[in-house]
Specification:
Number of strands: 9
Largest sheet: 3 strands, antiparallel
Distance between the termini: 25 Å
Oligomer: single chain
Length: 116
């Protein structure tokens, strides 16, 4: 279902402003993912690479529901998937040990989160 909200306000001088916002309501719960920190990070080879995920879920339900998530991390180099494994025990945190990546190369870290 799509809903559109429109607001129009006018002041005493008859100067008006208007805003509109569209909202889509879905029947399923969708996780919202954030990777806090800089979008582009620069590290040395001798440093750990750590990326932490923050996942939230909005629900229309008033009850507190505990959700379990599946985290699928991947790293791309020149549009090619590379085989590296996180050493983190927490699936929401991706940690690569020092010297896992080559220097002077742009890597793209991606995360797909699904609700189990």
């Amino acid at each position: 279902h799509n809903y559109t909200f429109s607001v129009r306000l006018c002041n005493f001088l008859s100067s008006c402003g208007e805003a509109m916002h569209r909202v889509t309501a879905v029947d399923s719960t969708i996780p919202v993912l954030a990777l806090p920190g800089q979008k582009i990070r620069s590290i040395t080879r001798k440093s750990l690479l750590t990326v932490q995920a923050a996942v939230t879920v909005s629900s229309c339900s008033s009850s507190d529901i505990k959700m379990v998530f599946k985290y699928d991390w991947s790293i791309l180099q020149n549009d090619q998937l590379i085989e590296v494994k996180s050493v983190s025990k927490d699936p929401a945190v991706f940690i690569l040990p020092p010297y896992s990546l080559k220097s002077d190369i742009l890597y793209i870290v991606s995360l797909k989160v699904t609700i189990l």
